[in-house]
Design brief:
mainly alpha, 6 helices
Length: 181
């Protein structure tokens, strides 16, 4: 009887640990990933600026992160421009095909007798407005805001990691000293 209670408590404890782990990973993985990525990409520029003593450590950290962010924004803008140009070209092709089909139908006159033009326009409006569903836009805005916030947190943390590396190492050695462990 006592062993079954022990197993139940153990299972409950494992469940709580998994739940807590999933919660931490879900909420803090994106900022942690952006911290690691920004620090990893900015460090070579930071090391170069520090080695040649262009600025002090704090200004070198700020300059390297700013440089990486500018490159990142330029890259995103170029890809988004390319992506938007492709979408506009595809939509233009589809609209030209639709106009050609409408011209063919008007010339033949067969389908216009069976379908009212107003019904076709209303049906098209409903379908197009369905694409702009507010729940989809709301989720997209929430994901975008979450991503921008985690990127902002990543920039701040990367700055402190680069600028105050020796202080952070001293603090970690103090907290995780052999006497504490």
């Amino acid at each position: 009887m006592r062993i079954s209670y022990f197993r139940f408590v153990l299972c409950l404890l494992v469940f709580i640990l998994f739940y807590f782990g999933i919660f931490v990973i879900k909420n803090y993985f994106t900022p942690f990933f952006s911290i690691v990525l920004i620090t990893y990409v900015s460090y070579p520029i930071f090391a170069l600026l520090v080695r040649y003593k262009v600025f002090n450590r704090k200004l070198s950290a700020l300059t390297s992160i700013l440089f990486v962010n500018i490159i990142f924004i330029i890259t995103i803008l170029n890809f988004s421009q390319l992506f938007m140009n492709n979408i506009v070209a595809l939509i233009r092709e589809d609209l030209l095909k639709v106009y050609d089909d409408i011209g063919t139908v008007i010339k033949e006159g067969t389908i216009l007798q069976a379908v009212k033009l107003e019904d076709a326009i209303n049906y098209t409006k409903e379908k197009l407005l369905g694409l702009l569903n507010t729940s989809v836009l709301t989720k997209g805005a929430a994901y975008t805001t979450e991503g921008i916030l985690s990127y902002f947190i990543g920039n701040i943390a990367a700055y402190f990691i680069l600028a105050d590396k020796s202080e952070l190492q001293g603090w970690i050695k103090y907290v995780c000293s052999e006497e504490v462990i």
